[in-house]
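Worked Example 4.2. Consider the chain below.
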Amino acid sequence: MLDEKDLEFVEALRSLDVPRNVAMLITFLANVSEANSREIETATRMRQPEVSIAMRALRSNNWVEEGDINAEGKGRPMKVYMLSVTLNMIIQHYEEERNREAARAMEAIQRLRELTTT
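Applying the procedure from the previous section yields the following structure tokens:
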């Protein structure tokens, strides 16, 4: 389960427009060495489709690794997931993203100023 500090971390990510489910997944995986889908669903109170969508976002950034654990008996192997980057790398990603957005906004403002003086 996520504690108060974890929930504050989730809210800080949310303030950067990180989708809630992605923020929850990042925060949970940062607190465990690895987890399967069921453990993620239970700890984050997300449904399986929400976990899948959030996992897709982490995969697209190459932030998560998948492993297999053989199920007892003859069942399919179970997937386990772990962060493949540090939280600092994830924070840096969002920092750089926001800096690029701010630079684009400032360029647009500068262009507006130029257009009003000509």
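The mean pLDDT is 93. The beta strands are 35-36, 64-69, 78-83. Compare this with Example 4.1 before moving on.
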